[in-house]
Amino acid sequence: MPWEAASGLLSVAGTWLGDGKIPVALHKDKAYVATLDRLLAFNTTTGSLTATITPKADALSVLSRDDRNNAAPPVVTPGANPLVLAPFFVRQPGVGTQAATNFIELTATNASSDKVDWRLPLTLPSWTKDGSPRTVSVVGASERAAVVTVSTGASSLFSATTTYGIDLTARRVLWTKDRFEATAVSGNIVAGELETTDETYESARGYDLLTGTERWRGEDRLNLDVKPAGPHLLLVQAQDKSDYRVHIQQFLDPATGTAKHEAPENIAGSRCDHDGQNSVVCSWDQGNLHKVWAFNDRTASLLWQLPDQTANRIAPRVTAVWNGRIYGKTDDGPLALDSRTGADLPTRPGAAPFLVNGYTGLALSPAPEDDLTAYPAAG
Description:
single chain, mainly beta, seven-stranded antiparallel sheet, globular
């Protein structure tokens, strides 16, 4: 894989240092690698770089070798004519009396031709003028609309967020919402966290994807965290605003905001992925400690969990979930589990991919190289 795909994200021992979101999107046999200043189209079958897409304006940051790639992964839209969406922070130089301008340039690349279909400038919110660090990502998309969120980033003392709804056909901004951090797109709903005007509390919210109209709202909470848990669930974690000792951990329906099921108490800090069938797999890692849960993707009822002391089974470090399988590794090497039952699959994979589809799995090559490598998927 191109060095940009894992630049600054792998330790000397070959462990992933990122937050679990590799800055790559897979579409058929192509891998799209995002950086802060370019999008690379890579053919995983031939090992060739087929296109380098750069913003029309000047990128504010440029990734050099060994720099940490902090770009969010690009998003491939669903449908018969998919687009690869990637946003960039850019600067238009001043001309004459016209001052230089910083803005977001959203690029839409045709997934068939790897050529840019269109570009859309997004005006930065007023709070960015204080020079705070910023992150920008495409949160999700339908065939008709996409959602882009810009924020100060978790490391900033000053916290601010703005979200844009984008019409992919008319190529224009449909709506914007300050203080709203979108985290999931589910059907015609975009869900996330809205901060109160006095910055005291946050509440889970659901808005219409096309109009930005509020569809539901949750209660005000402290330290709210709303995460996607497959196409039919949200995992919401928070503290009660009246008593911070009370922790709330629930699965919600993204369409209505209603609670579907209580989540396990020790699931805080986990990451959840849909298996492409009917299960959601959540995994938690801290050092050499690992936990895995599987839930029904509509009712949120618990299917199984690891470790299981009664069966003398340990939990693996989960790397990817796809097509009814959980990929991961233990000290014994790479393995695969049935996502519905948690049973070890008899055929062990040759690698533990971080990202996988029906064509390709992206995993670390054997030591001592420990490079991010594309392997053919076995199916």
